[in-house]
Amino acid sequence: MAGKTTRQSGERAKLGGALDTQVSRAFSPGVVHPASVISVTRLTLDDVEQILELTTVLEREPVERRSKRLAHRRVALLFYESSTRTRTSFELAAKTLGAETTLVSALSSSIEKGESLKDTGLNLKALGAEAIVLRHPNSGSAQLLAEATGLPVLNAGDGMHEHPSQALLDLRTILSWKLGDKLLRGKVKVSDTTLRGVTVTICGDIFHSRVARSNALLLPRLGARVLLCGPPILLPEIAAELLPEKASGHIEVRRDFEECMRESDVLMMLRIQKERLQNLQLNLSEYVAEYQLGPGRLAEFAPKALVLHPGPMVRGLEITAEVADGAQSAILEQVTHGLSVRRALLVRALSAAKKVGSA
Amino acid sequence: MKARSKATLIRGGRLVDPANRVDALRDVLLADGRVSAVNAPGKLDLAAKQLGAEILVARGCVVAPGLIDIHVHLREPGQGYKETIATGTRAAVAGGFTAVCCMPNTIPVNDSAEWTLWMQAPERDALAAVFPVAAATIGSLGETVTDYAQLKDAGAVAVSDDGKPILGDDVMRQCLVQAARVGMPVIQHAEDTRLTGGCSMNAGPLAFRLGLRGYSVEAEAGIVRRDLKLLEELDRKSKATAHLHVAHLSTAAALDEVRRAKKRGLRVTCEVAPHHFTLTDAAVGNYNTHAKMYPPLRAELDREAMIEGLLDGTVDCIATDHAPHAIHEKQEEFDRAPNGILGLETALGLTLRMLHGERGMSLVKTLSMLTSGPAAVMGWKDRGHLAKGARADVAVFAPDASWTYSAENGESRSRNTPFDGWKLPGRLRATVVSGVVTSV
C-alpha cells in the first residue's frame, strides 16, 4: 500500500472529515496595484521623474482642462489619524481635478465598531472607490489595504513606516530651490546625480518619523548626502541602515546639530512628538539647547540653507517662530508643492490600466 | 472498549533508530501496540505470518521512530476555530509525528487537573498521543505556582506559561523547585516582556525601515541568563535537580548561555523551531504576517548559530511551536496580527533539507532531533526509539522523494505558514501510532 500511494498536495485525501474552510480570493499577499504609492523604495527614479513631470504639467494646465482630468472618478480618503495638511491637500488635489471624494475617518465610521481595515477597504471598493488615500497609525497598513482591495492605494502616512508623498514634495521643494525656473519648464531629469553635492540634514525624532524614513530612503538615491541628526534615544545608530542599495549618495548618523548645519544646504526639522515623550528619557530643555533651530544658530552656522518642516510645527520647541517665518524658510512652499505632487499621484493612480500587477 | 491493534510488519526499509544507533536495513514487527521484533530483512516473515500481520512495504524508505513534537498549540479548549485537538493531531500524523506536547495557553488556561484530563479524553478524537503541558502559574499570570503533583497525576508532562515568560525571580525559583520535586521540566518562554512592548519583529535594519518596533536579542538572552543563574543557585542548595528547558530558542546569544551552562553541568535543555534555522527576518518582506511569530525570525548570524547548535549538540531537539491562527486574524495590520505559524506538516521536510541536505548531517543525527532528542528532554523511555518493547510509533518516509507542501490541502484547520508551495524532501509514506497505520 505504502509504495503506491503518492502524497501530493492536490490529490491527497483528507484524513478526517473534509474541512470546509475557504481561502479568501480577494487577498493577494505581496501583490499591489502598480500605481499604488506605498513606499518610495518601490518607485524607480524614472517613476519619480514622471511624477515630477506630471506635477508640472498639471500645475501649468489651464484650470478648465485640469478640472476635467478626473471628472466622475471616485477617490476615497480613509483617515484613521488626525491630519490637517495631508488630508486637505489630497482632498483639494482630487477636487481640483474634478474627482468625487469621500472622507472616512475613524471616529465617524464603522471603524469604531471594530470593522477591519480589509473590510473597510472592500466596502469602499464596492461603493465605487477607484483609489484610496490612507492615513493609518499602524506601519504596513497601506500595504495591507492594497493587497486586500487590489486598488491603487496612496500611502498618506502609515505608522512609523513611510509618508512617500511628503518625500516627493520635499524633493520638489529642494529641486525648485536648486533649479528655480527650470523646474517649471518641466525639464527635470531625475537620476543618481540630480542631488549630487547637496547635503540635507534631517533633525529630530527620526525613530518615530515616517517623513524621515521616506526622505532617507529617497534622497540618497538621487545622490544627496543625508545627515540624520538627533540624540541616541530618538536616533539609534541602526538608522544609517536606511541607505538604499546602490544609492549614489549616503547617510550618516550624527549627534552635533551645529556641525551638521555647517555642512548642510537643506535643514529639515521634525516635530518633537510630545505624546511619545512620556516613555522616553528625553530632557526637553536639553533638547532645545542642542537641537532647536533658532535665528542665532541659523545665522551663524547655515546662513544660506533652506529650512524645511513637514508640519505640524511646535514653535518654540524644535524651531522658533523667527526661523519658521524667516527668509530661509520654505515651509509654506512645501505645502503648495504638496498639493501639486498629490494631483500627479492621483492622476497617475487613476489613469493606470486597471489591472493588478506585482509591485 | 478499545480495539486490539493488529500486527504489522514493516518490511524492506532502512531502519534509522538514533537512540539505538541503528542505521541499517531492518524489518520491524509491531504487535499489540509495541515493537515486538527487529531483525534483518526477511527474518521476521515467519513470525509475521503467524501473527497474521499486515505488511507495510518500506522499500526505499526510511523507517524511523514516530516523531515527537514537544511544543505545539492545539487551541482547545476555547479556540476551536483555529485548531482542535482532532485537527491538530491529524496535522501531526500528516507530518510523521506520533506524539505532541500541547501548551497551556488555551482559553481558559490549562492550569488544572480537570482541563489536563479533558485534553486527553477519548472524545477529543486525537490521532496522535497528546501530552498536556500545564500552566506553571495559575492563569499563567506569573504569580501563584500551580499544584504540580496534581497536574502530573492528571497527565501533565511539564509546566510552562508559554506565550508569556515567568518573569519574577521568586516565582521562577519556586517553579523550578516544585517541578524538580515531581520530576517535571519547567519550560520557559524566554522573553523579557519589559523590553518587548509593542514589538512585532526582530530588531534590525529591516524593522527600522518598516517602522516596526524591534524585539531585541537581549530580551531573550537576558531571561535565559537569569534562569540559568537561578538554576545554578538551586543546584548548590537542593537535592532534587531542577530541569530547565528553554523553548523556541532563537538567538546566538541565548544559545551561548545554554552552551556554557551545559559545560558547567547544569540540567538545562533547549529546543529550536524549524523556522528559526530556515528563515531570517528578511522573510517579513512587505509585512508578511505569515512570517510573524514570537520569538521572531532573526538575523542570518542567529539562523546560522541555530544550525551550529544543532550540529554541535547544544540543541537537544527540534520543536515546531505549531501555532494555528484563522485567516482573518493574519489579515490584519502587521503589529496587530497574532504571533505564530503552523509547523507540524513541514518540520520533517525542513529538517531534512536544512540539516541533512544542506549541511550533510547524518540521517541518524538529523532524526535524533525529532525522536530520541525530544524523548530524552521529556524523560520518556518507551518513545522516540524502536527497540523491542518500545511503543509502536513509526514514521515511514522516502528521504529523497520531494513533495510540495500546500497549506490549503493541509490537515490543520489553519493556513498560516510561510512555507506554502515549498518543495521539500522526505515524502511521508506512513505514520503508525500505537501500531495503527493512520496515514499513507
Assembly status: heterodimer
Structure class of chain B: alpha/beta
**Which whole number gives the mean pLDDT of chain A?**
89
User: Which bin fits the share of residues in helices of chain B?
Assistant: 25-40%
Work out the number of β strands of chain B: 22
- The CATH architecture designation of the largest domain in chain A is 3-Layer(aba) Sandwich
In one word, what is the shape of chain A? globular
| Gyration radius over CA of chain A | 23 Å
CATH fold-level label of the largest domain in chain A: Rossmann fold
CATH H-level superfamily title of the largest domain in chain A: Aspartate/ornithine carbamoyltransferase
Q: Please, how many helices of chain B?
A: 14
Give the domain tally of chain A.
2
SSE succession of chain A: EHHEHEHEHEHHEHEEHEHHHEHHE
Strand content of chain B: 15-25%
Which regions of chain B contain 5 or more consecutive residues with pLDDT less than 50? Answer: none
- Round the Cα radius of gyration of chain B to an integer and report it: 21 Å
What is the averaged pLDDT score of chain B? 96
**Number of domains in the coordinates of chain B?**
1
